[in-house]
Amino acid sequence: MSAHCCNHGSTPEPSTVDVRWRRALWIALVVNAAMFSVEFMAGELADSRSLQADSIDFFADAANYAISLGVAGLALAWRARAALFKGITLLGLGVYVLVGAGLSAVEGSSPDAPAIGIIGALALVANVAVAALLYRWRSGDANMQSVWICTRNDAIANIAVLAAAFGVFGTGTRWPDLAVATAMALLSLTGGMRIVRLALSEMHMAKALVEPAAFQS
């Protein structure tokens, strides 16, 4: 996540809802909701922690897109609150996956490598398509940036899931799968902290804009 993406203080607040932005979010919502169902079931059947972690990412992103659709065009304060909620969601996701990986390290079994590879490849195609769709809004406000960060992180995670499939196939053990799941959890924690910082900054900015207006009235 480059420093340029953090520099959004001068981004103008949109006065109207961007129709293209809303259309892109609807497409992303449908894709992520469908992939959550597919990957979650596949993760259960393949006994793969990395697939399960990735499926939860799809679920979180579907919820995030739904929230973004609800606040698009609203005041900066409301968009910042939505981004804050999404950041906290990512932090919770990271903790959940770390705990799950730890439990699997103690009592888990070797997952199904071919299943991980096939579903991981399908997830990568879905996330790259959504990332390309949302690329033009990567430098918007905290809410838009949070959507882009989540989508980009998922595409990176899918490449790691494919690496886990090769690792499990080559070693015959669960450790590559658990390593990828742990890395995905850390990615979620990093992205969540970044979104929370951006959102809190914009909430402070919105409060500073409201207080002078209230004083003048």
CATH top level class name = Mainly Alpha
Question: How many E-type strands?
Answer: 0
Terminal Cα span: 41 Å
Count of helical regions: 7
Q: Spell the H/E element sequence.
A: HHHHHHH
Residue stretches low in confidence (pLDDT < 50, at least 5 long) are 1-17
Q: Tell me the helix content.
A: over 70%
Q: Would you kindly provide a brief summary of this structure?
A:
By secondary structure, the protein is mainly α.
Looking at this protein, list some descriptive labels.
217 residues; mainly alpha; disordered N terminus; 83% helix; Alpha-lytic protease prodomain-like
Verbal overview:
With 217 residues, the protein is mainly alpha-helical. It has a single domain (14-216), classed as Alpha-lytic protease prodomain-like (Up-down Bundle), CATH 1.20.1510. It contains 7 helices and no strands. It has helices spanning 3-6, 19-46, 49-71, 76-107, 113-134, 142-171, 175-216. It is elongated and about 60 Å long. The model is unreliable at 1-17 (pLDDT under 50).
Secondary structure: elements and pairs:
Elements: H1 3-6, H2 19-46, H3 49-71, H4 76-107, H5 113-134, H6 142-171, H7 175-216
Helix pairs in contact: 2-3, 2-5, 3-4, 3-6, 3-7, 4-6, 4-7, 5-6, 6-7
